[in-house]
Each structure stands twice: as C-alpha cells, then as structure tokens.
Specification:
The chain has 358 residues and is an alpha/beta fold. The chain contains 11 helices and 10 strands. 37% of the residues lie in helices and 22% in strands. Helix 1 links the parallel strand 2 and strand 3.
Length: 358
Amino acid sequence: MKHLVLKTAAAALLTASVATGALAANFRLTIAAGQVPRALPNLEEVQKFFVPEIEKRIKAAGLKDTVEFRQAYAGTLLKPRAVLLGVQDGIADIGYEPTVFHPDKLPLEQVSFATPFCTSDVLKVTKAIDLLHEKFPAMKAQYDKYNVIRLAGGSFDSYEFFSSFPLTKVEDLKGRKIGSTGAILQWLRGVGVTSIDSNMMEYYNSTKTGVYDGFIVFNSAATAMKYPEAAPYVTQVRFGAAYAAALIINKNSLARLPKEIQQIILDVGREWGAVGDKAYEAAGVKGLADAKAQFKEAKFTDFPDAERVKWARAMPNIGKEWAQRADKDGLPGTQVLSAYLDALRGQGEKCLRDWDKE
C-alpha cells in the first residue's frame, strides 16, 4: 500500500504517569502546515485559538489526561502540497490543508474556484460550502479516502491581481506570464496569458526575478509577504472570496484519544472554522489598507467594472466544465455546482455569470 499510517513520533504518542493516585495520560499531537501563520489568518488562529482552546477545555472538564501539541509550520515538517498525504501517513496528526492545491484529490472542494466573480464575502462562501457538506455524502467521502476527517474549512478573502506591469484593461494581459496555484489557473484561460503553477511562498522571488510578470493572491497576504515590493501594481479585480483550506486530523490519531478529548477536538475544530473566517474577513480589508500605507511606491487601482465583465466573459464556462468532469468521475458535480450557487443566491449574492445555467 502506497500510503500507510506510520507509527512515528509525530503520530499521537501516549506516555503514562502516575498522578494523584490515578493513571493519567499525556497524548502528543503534531500539527503541520506548509505556510507561515502570519500570512494566513485562519492558520494563525490554529495557534491562537485551536490549540489553547483545546487545552483550556480539557482542563475545565477536570480530565486527568492531557494533550501536548507540537506545532510545525512554514514547511518545517511538511511542504505546502504534502500536508494531505502527510497526515494520511501519520507524519503529522493534524494538518492545515490548502484544498486549492488538490483539484485531483479533493475535486468537489474546488467549486468556488470554478465560479469566480461571485462574492467577496468570506462568511457567505464558507456557509455555502458547509451546506454542501451537510447535503452531499460525497463531500465527506473525499476525505475518507485519505483516512482523515475534515474538522472544518475556511475561505480566503477576495483574490486580487499583483503584477510588475499596470493592468487597466483585459488586453494588458496578452502575452504575459502569470503565476498562481491549483484551480485558480482556470481564471487565466481566454485572456491570452501563459499560466504558471506556483504558490504563495514563491510569488515574491519569481516576480522579482522575472520568472513571471504577476500573480493572483488574496489581499490579506500582501503586507506579511511584502508582495508589493516585487509586484508594485496591485489591481482590485475582485475575483471574489474562495473556499481554500481545511483543518484535518488523521482518523487513527483521533481514535487513540479518550472519547471526551475526541469530542473537544471535534467541537473546537468546528469553531475554528468560524473564528478563522472572521479573521480573514477583517484581514482582507486591513491587509489592503496596511499595504497602501507601507508600500508608498506601489500603485493601487480598481479594475473597471466593464473590464471585469469582459474578463469573466472571455473565459470558457469553467463552472460547467468542472461539473461535467466531476460527473464523469461518478461525483455529483452538476448537483454540487447548482447547490453552491443557489446557496449564494439565497444569501443575496449575484455572480457576473450564472455558471450553472449558461
């Protein structure tokens, strides 16, 4: 079997000690992420909320058992694209998994990336995705294949365009090399660019050295990653917020824990999703304001509404294409697409294109 659950020091180790006449256990859990917490607000909330809240609730419940967390961020244990399989294999017990990296392994999680130009509201996007997880068993089954449980998911603030050249109209893109990641690359179809699969840890250097001319990323990362230094033209295209990450736990690691601690982790995990979304909602606005204040030489502009429509219309119907691919693989792609967009419409949002109806 290619991916086995490994019995390593990183996988929920148990040590026993005698305390106050009873046998108490200390469980060690490793959390891994390929990114730096300062750049991703909901990853930062793993440090600030998820870990301390679990410790607090275990203590408040008067449990003799404890959990000790080892936290490994910025790719120190697992690289950005290795978290899903790393948690499956037990290299880490819990992982911050950017679902956007895995259109092949987590295909149904990509629906918001197949429907750009819809909404910049982080909370509404995640609410729509959570409804899909309640309605379609196939959403959970994606994670079951990798022996992990999705504790919760979260969305990133609106994706925008950072470049070394000014962008005032769609035609300015022609002949350019643009970096982005995973399913986001679909947004570059039809506008005459060469797309390069990359990730946020590479955007700065790759643009600075001319490997590509720009990239698409969310505003909240701009200041922490110093992106305007390398890409001084920051254009608010308003592609929209997108569901892009999940907090996952290895099933075996969870099963080793006492039932009371399992429930605390499941409860706090769900709450982490809401806390992370609120952090992203605030960080998107603050990130843009901070970048404007810090990078005085950069040019911050709004992409004209007419050009946004032109960009959206230049794409093939990537929503229907995505749904049809999923259907062919035996997944409810068309149903998920319609349900997701209906969930947004039900919250008062209107996309530039009706990706499910055209």
